[in-house]
Write a structure and sequence with these properties.
heterodimer; A: about 325 residues; alpha/beta; Rossmann fold; 2 domains; 6-stranded mixed beta sheet; 10 strands; about 40% helix; B: about 120 residues; alpha+beta; Ubiquitin-like (UB roll); 5-stranded mixed beta sheet; 4 helices; about 15% strand; binds pyridoxal-5'-phosphate; Mopterin_synth/thiamin_S_b (chain B); MoaD/ThiS family protein (chain B)
Chain lengths: ~325, ~120
């Protein structure tokens, strides 16, 4: 057990647990293929985003951009907002979040509980609209500080300095790292660190594939790639549909007792794909993947019960991860 | 058997509204050329003049991003499934929770009010 001076000091240092039941069986005499889950739901507010939030706020403080009493503005519909709200509360800042209207009520309740103020952007414009809205609001309030997680190097650095070293320490034989692709901070930071230290490491991205509404741009040129993204850090990138993500999320709790959010199901789907390829090729593999958050915030979707088809319908057109 | 290609909403003007079309080719480049012969203009939206995939277009073969499989040189086989999607921040924002279906009506009402407010702020 460990003791910390404050909640902020208890960020990171999450457990890495083996998944003996979900790891694929290998033929007699073949090298082992093992899956390992990094339990990021064991962070102060329950998601991997605590790491990024803490690093981004610290970096802004060190650069003199943030002073006590300042207002932080961030486009975020979820975990980053909750993490920033907690950090802002403990360090003495006000937080305003801009988020698309089609997020779960749990998220809104959690953000308000932690003391954040919320400005909704229309679902129709999707996430791009929320980023655009936040940028406009920032221009109108030059004294507000936008940390802008999509382009903030401290987001990726949090994982370069903490997630990566923790993984290598706990699993020196790691062969694959699998995580979700959102702002890309987790994969860029952890991926760069592991590439420097582990020869031949495979860095694998899983991104959610949503219903059509989410891709409803008017023009290809309205597309968006986070500034942090550098494709050379990745080895492979999978797009995982709702059905596969839901199936894997349920399998994880049924078989290994880990209750996670749907992005983790998408990540597990990609992790299983690379694990099965290793079995087929008769190669040893230690596949570490990220459990980005717990399932609590998604219970109201109803997608943990009923048939898979019902769950898929329930999440269609929604942002589920 | 041919290769099934899923077309995103914004490009369906090139496929007469079809969500899914079929084509043939040994590589992604060949497939796009084949598609363009029946759906003129489609290829031009996906490939730049310099001959690379457009920055804001993602193409997946059996759910895997072709940029890591050789891009336009990615090998294809009969029965493969190709998905074309615009790059959106959905990947990122998407890591937001789904609106509860039960509460969707109420949430939409509140949100469209808030949306107007946000639009007002943005103006
Ligand atoms: C639940 C969940 N999974 C995955 C991600 C993706 O992580 P990142 O933003 O570091 O790419 C996020 C954050 O965006 C998240 O909240």
């Amino acid at each position: 057990m460990a003791r910390y001076d404050s909640l902020l000091d208890a960020c990171g240092g999450t457990p890495l647990v083996g998944l003996p039941r979900l790891s694929p069986a290998v033929p007699d005499g073949a090298p082992p293929v093992r899956l390992w889950a990094k339990l990021e739901d064991r962070n102060p507010t329950g998601s991997i985003k605590d790491r990024a939030a803490l690093f981004m706020v610290r970096a802004a403080e060190e650069a003199g951009r943030l002073r006590p009493g300042d207002t932080i503005l961030e486009p975020t519909s979820g975990n980053t907002g909750i993490s920033l709200a907690m950090v802002a509360k403990l360090r003495g800042y006000r937080l305003v979040c801009v988020m698309p209207e089609n997020v779960s009520t749990e998220r809104v309740q959690l953000l308000r509980m932690y003391g954040a103020e919320i400005i909704f952007s229309p679902a129709a414009g999707g996430s791009n609209q929320a980023v655009a809205t936040a940028k406009q609001i920032a221009a109108e309030h030059p004294d507000w500080v936008m940390l802008y997680q999509y382009g903030n190097e401290a987001n990726a650095r949090a994982h370069y300095e903490t997630t990566g070293p923790e993984l290598l320490h706990d699993l020196p034989t790691i062969t694959h790292f699998v995580a979700g692709l959102g702002t890309t901070g987790t994969l860029m930071g952890t991926g760069r660190y592991l590439r420097e230290k582990v020869e031949g490491i495979q860095v694998v991205a899983a991104e959610p594939r949503y219903g059509e509404l989410v891709y409803g741009l008017r023009n290809i040129d309205e597309g968006y790639v986070p500034e942090l993204y550098d494709a050379t850090v990745l080895s492979r990138r999978f797009s995982v549909g709702t059905r596969d993500a839901v199936l894997r999320t349920r399998q994880l709790v049924e078989v290994e007792g880990i209750f996670a959010g749907f992005s983790t199901g998408a990540i597990l789907h990609a992790a299983l794909a690379v694990a099965h390829e290793a079995v087929r090729d008769g190669r040893r593999a230690d596949v570490a993947f990220v459990v980005a958050d717990g399932g609590w915030k998604y219970l109201s979707t109803g997608a943990y019960g009923g048939t898979l088809a019902d769950a898929e319908d329930a999440l269609d057109g929604q942002l589920w991860a | 058997m041919a290769i099934e290609v899923r077309i995103p909403t914004i490009l369906r003007s090139y496929t007469g509204g079809a969500k899914v079309v079929e084509g043939t080719g040994d590589t992604l480049g060949d497939l796009l050329a084949d598609l363009d012969s029946r759906h003129a203009g489609l290829r031009g939206r996906l490939v730049t003049e310099a001959g690379a995939l457009h920055r804001f277009v993602n193409v997946y073969v059996n759910d895997e991003d072709v940029r890591f499989l050789g891009a336009l040189d990615a090998k294809l086989s009969d029965g493969d499934s190709v998905t074309i999607l615009p790059a959106v921040a959905g990947g990122a924002f998407g890591f937001a929770a789904a609106a509860a279906i039960a509460q969707h009506g109420a949430a939409t009402a509140i949100a469209s009010h808030a949306g107007r407010r946000a639009a007002g702020v943005a103006r």
